[in-house]
Amino acid sequence: MKQFLLILLCSHLAFSQVKYPKDYFRSPLDVTLVLSGTFAELRSNHFHSGLDIKTQQRKGLKVYAAAQGYVSRIKISHFGYGKALYITHPNGYVSVYAHLQKFSPAIEAYIKECQYQKETYEVEVFPSPDELPIATDEIVAFSGNSGSSGGPHLHFEIRDNAERPINPMLFGIDIDDSKAPVVSKVYAYPKNKNSYVDESKVRKELRLIPSKNGDYSVEPIEAFGDIGFGIVSYDQQDLATNKNGVSNIQSFFNGNKNLEVDFKRFSFNETKHLNRYIDFEIFKTKKSRIQKLFIEPGNTLSLFKDVSDNGYIKVEDSTSSVYKVRIRDFKGNETWLSIPIKGKKHKEVLEGESITPKHYIFKDQVNELSDRNISVYFPSNSFYDDFYIDFGVKSDTLILHKDIVPIMKNFTINYDISNYNDGDKSKLFIAKLYGYYKKPYYVRTTRKGDVLSARSKSFGTFALQTDTIRPTIKPVNFQDKKWLSKHNYLKVKIDDDLSGISNYRATINGKWILMEYDYKTDLLVYNFADNIIEDTEHNLKIIVTDNVGNSSTFEATFFRK
Ligand SMILES: [Zn+2]
């Protein structure tokens, strides 16, 4: 027995006590670190995989390699990380730098060669260890706002050799933080029809009572059966007002720990389960992210520790108990929330009759719905629960439930368009309609004969739209037939109203040129430093195509010595 315990103890230690080197990595910037985002904080459909470091509201700050190593990956994309650099270090860790403005001259030359070779702005390459070696303290890039970034900042990550992101602060990256986390909402969740809180069988918000020392409590609740709780919380650090994520949450029932959520490390294939961890319906309807301190079926997140009864508590009749939550930031500042509970069994609880819709979804099965010219196909295991789905078709509009259910896999929507004129068919696309005014947004649509298909991962209203209007192309900093010898850049604005821009191609005197596209400003920019042009007179030609194939051509002549 003793031996068994020892083995158990050792394996537990080996699993949980990964030693991260504290002095190995330096800060990637030479300014005081201020964060606009912490590790594993809750984002849309994912946990944040790194630190978002503020760059003084500007682009162009020097970005240093966190340690010596080699460039193992460069990825440039219009969305996502924008311009991103990956450095592999001799100790097996990989540091990642994203939303960059540009790379250091050596890396910039390397990647431009790839771009000119492939004739695309978007590229992804994996250099070998001897191609771009990186020295200690080397400047590798300049910070920016590229890709899906909402303002200038550096996104910095450290990943282990299994591609799992780890909180960089575990490696000694230090941030001033003396403030304890804040709790802004608390909810109780009866688990099933035999449990209730204050006579409610569904989630119930409890009124928070802040105390002077920063902790919280609520009025005693009356409850019975299996109950879970959820909180909305954030952490502010010393040098900014950003509401960042917390680093650890623990819950206790009558002094016994029943759940811990520890945001130290995760893997990218589990990050989607964020939508199961938060109360997805509340997030979609009220924009508030409740972290549920209980684990429902299908939630396989590795962030949970020391779980008993999946985090639920069992409240018995005529008992007095207390549920407590301890919320901590990385620096160990902590806030407590306590919920006094009186166990009280009601004689009976009224249950409202509900009208059930026609269509039922079984989570373990393939589900197909169809009506007239529209069908929807869900692969098996797309959902966490079985449920009744709203499904309605009205001419070319598909009402597919409400966007309040987390979906793990893409589903496919098919429209039969054989009733359209042949001329119109090629201009049709499937759109998702948003908001009160039902504004259409293009969903990537493919056509096979008379069937249009689109894939989506969220419910809502979909409709067919027609786009017959070509993209627009307008010069920003030059005019036709002028001398541009002093220009460093050519800037052009491109736009497409309905289906959106699919691709663009620019040439000077017939040779492909690299134009960087920023979808946030609609700008295409060519850098004369690329040195592609030789003669004096130049013909610039840009072709822009939208998502249904309408295209526009812009041509201009300019002179340059
Ligand atoms: Zn980030």
First CA to last CA: what distance? 86 Å
Low-confidence stretches are 1-15
Small ligands present: zinc ion
- Rg over CA atoms, rounded to whole Å, is 28 Å
Describe the model.
The protein has 561 residues and is mainly beta. The chain is 8% helix and 42% strand. It has five helices and 48 strands. Strand 7 and strand 8 form a beta hairpin. The termini are far apart. Bound molecules: zinc ion. Zinc ion binds next to loops.
Characteristic terms for this protein:
mainly beta; 9-stranded antiparallel β-sheet; globular; 561 residues; 42% strand
Summary, kept brief:
This protein has 561 residues and is mainly beta. Helices cover 8% and strands 42% of the residues.
Helices and strands in order, then pairings?
Elements: H1 2-16, E1 35-37, E2 42-43, E3 46-47, E4 51-54, E5 62-64, E6 69-76, E7 83-88, E8 94-98, E9 100-103, H2 105-118, E10 123-125, E11 133-134, E12 139-143, E13 153-159, E14 165-166, E15 182-190, E16 196-197, E17 204-206, E18 209-210, E19 216-217, E20 221-234, E21 248-253, E22 256-262, H3 274-277, H4 280-286, E23 291-292, E24 304-305, E25 313-315, E26 320-328, E27 334-343, E28 359-361, E29 367-371, E30 374-378, E31 387-389, E32 391-394, E33 397-400, E34 411-416, H5 422-425, E35 428-434, E36 439-442, E37 445-448, E38 451-456, E39 460-466, E40 472-475, E41 482-483, E42 489-495, E43 501-508, E44 511-512, E45 515-518, E46 523-527, E47 537-546, E48 551-559
Parallel strand pairs: 19-27, 20-27, 41-48
Antiparallel strand pairs: 1-4, 2-3, 4-13, 5-12, 6-7, 6-10, 6-11, 7-8, 8-13, 9-12, 13-14, 15-17, 15-20, 16-20, 18-19, 20-23, 20-25, 21-22, 21-26, 22-24, 26-27, 28-31, 29-30, 30-34, 32-33, 33-39, 34-38, 35-36, 35-39, 37-38, 40-42, 42-46, 43-44, 43-47, 45-46, 47-48
Bound molecules: zinc ion.
Residues 37, 48, 50, 52, 155 line the site of zinc ion.
